[in-house]
Amino acid sequence: MAMLIRTILNEIIPKPLQKYISSKFSDLISTYFSSTFTFIIEERWQAVFNETFRAVEVYLPTRVGPSTDKLVLGSNDPNNPLAPPKRNIPSDCKIIDEFEGMTLEWTLRVKESDKYYVPDKKCFYLTCKKGVREKVEQKYFPHIAKTAETILRKREKLFIYTYNQDRSRWESAMFKHPARAWKRGYLLYGPPGTGKSSLVAAIANYMSYNVYDLQFQSVRNDAELRRILTSTTNRSILLIEDIDCSTKVSEDRSKAKDEKQKEGEDGRPINRPSPVDPGVTLSGLLNFIDGLWSSCGNERIIIFTTNHKEKLDPALLRPGRMDVHLHMGFCTPAGFRKLATTYLGIKDGKLFGSIDELIKSVEVTPAEVAQQLMVKSDDPEAALQGLIEFLNMKKDKVGEEKLTQEKEAEKKTEKDGGKQSKKLDEAETGSIYLT
């Protein structure tokens, strides 16, 4: 008979409804007959960060015992790579804690978000016997809060936090002020081809430092800039090339965003969704170079390059941000002799005097000189002769351009003079002379 009833019910009641009824029945049974109780501590509580969650997050790594089957280890102190790693709790890891005769079971559960701008949802689950529920609330949780506060007070490392707008949460980086900053900023400025990038490579090789080449065009905003810069290692060079162009990124992007705003029929602007990000601002860059964020990291060299120093904001140029300004100018006779030694293996020659005089009379970059010497590096005489021809051509071209500019200036002067004379004649024609 029972089998017949089950068969009839299976035919009449759909499978999803059967599962729903079964789960509700199981919950009802477990609620009334289960001997355990579960506390749920979420990461956020009433739109703010849950302080109880923060305390548990600090407390639990100290309670890891033999029953724990997995653990997260990591270190964020680049100044002490040999120090023991710090502990953290992975998801779905069970930790057993003992307190005043009670056995308590902790589990961290993480619900991953399918959207990058929505943070993952974290919850701690504390399971205990129903009979000790009040004791857990009144004694155990205050014990956790007090222990966590003691642990935080003993921490040697401080952290600086910034709000991540994309992820809607605060992110931290290690904060250490050494009293005497181990950080230097250099500005290399001069025309293209004068060796600014080559000098950076030479410094990196000499110091055995890694180079991080930062392109502002690929950075969406100041928050992302901080995350990128704090992820660089100590004993490294941060290279920001063409800083005069990079600081315009924010301005150009804001203009593009303004173009998205059109006026409606009533004259009010219509704000349409725009994919354009605000970009990196000057204040965001300065805050990392010279603000609180400059204390995050050690033994770092920041090098800026530009072709036009006069275009830079004065706030960037002051000491503490750009400590040394190094002008990379056009090639000089001494520079030519160094290049000749490097590429041709000679220190002097009969053509050196002529080349010295030509270099003094024309603006030529070290890159242009090096290119001419490399063409025939196996034949020094031919290479020097080719360099002389190149310098003469450059000198003639400069002379022609100068002559053209003078002629255009004369024509403009004559044209302006004719207009002025015509105005005087018209003025005299319309004048009344009184005697």
From TrEMBL:
The keyword Calcium does not apply. Residues 182-332 form the AAA+ ATPase domain. Its cofactor is Mg(2+). It catalyses: ATP + H2O = ADP + phosphate + H(+). The keyword DNA-binding does not apply. InterPro entries: AAA+_ATPase (IPR003593), AAA_N_dom (IPR025753), At3g28540-like_C (IPR058017), ATPase_AAA_core (IPR003959), ATPase_AAA_CS (IPR003960), Mitochondrial_chaperone_BCS1 (IPR050747), P-loop_NTPase (IPR027417). Residues 250-276, 399-435 are annotated as: Disordered. Keywords: ATP-binding, Hydrolase, Magnesium, Nucleotide-binding. SMART domains: AAA (SM00382). Residues 250-269, 399-426 have a biased composition (Basic and acidic residues). GO terms for biological process: response to stress. GO terms for molecular function: ATP binding; ATP hydrolysis activity. Pfam families: AAA, AAA_assoc, AAA_lid_At3g28540. Belongs to the AAA ATPase family. BCS1 subfamily. This is AAA+ ATPase domain-containing protein. It comes from Corchorus olitorius.
